[in-house]
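Pasting as-is:
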Amino acid sequence: MNTDTALRRAQVYKFLAGAFLYPAENWLEDAPTVNEIARALDAPTLIVDQSAWNMDQLQSEHRRVFGLAGSLCYETEYGLPHEFRQSQELADLAGFYRAFGFDVGGAVRERPDHLAVELEFACALALKEAYAAEKGIDEHVEVCADAQRKFIGDHLSGWIGLFAQSVALNAIDGPYLELARFASAFVAADAARLGARIEPRRLGDVKHTPVLADFSCGDCPVAEVPEQGVVA
């Protein structure tokens, strides 16, 4: 895989990581550029009308889709019904991050299995591969490529399709449904490009954490955060 390909992949993953967080800026404005990059990779594109949603509407839609169903965005809510298995998966993710110096942090911290965190880690690995390729360090290129095959195969590709299906139940239509579909299709195409071994999880095993009867998003502090990131 050449430097340009790795950089393009990193750009798409970076876009997706930011877009799934509570919007501090209108990510829809970047959709045309992302689609150009996706086409250069022979990957699926994002089908969305960026002119139909202003910033306030986008933030409101994010709260509607993800607010009362926050568990949608966490890998261990998908096909991992046993607490011990969930702990194993979180430990595995932490091991990946630690090995490549990836620290979860920022203004709003998320669990290591949040979709945005996993997407940003995929971006970081692609950037490391691009850097190693640019410097001609073949051994490091292979290390990064192998890590991406394992991470995307063991984690992202196994649950992002179920995530997109879950968003469809919450969103029905709108930018986040299209974003979820695009993310799922892009990760699947990237997994195939990398030769990743995929182990999809079963829809019947999905048991999202239930929402408490008296839960409300009315006083959620996330909406007050002007800026956020998942990497320190």
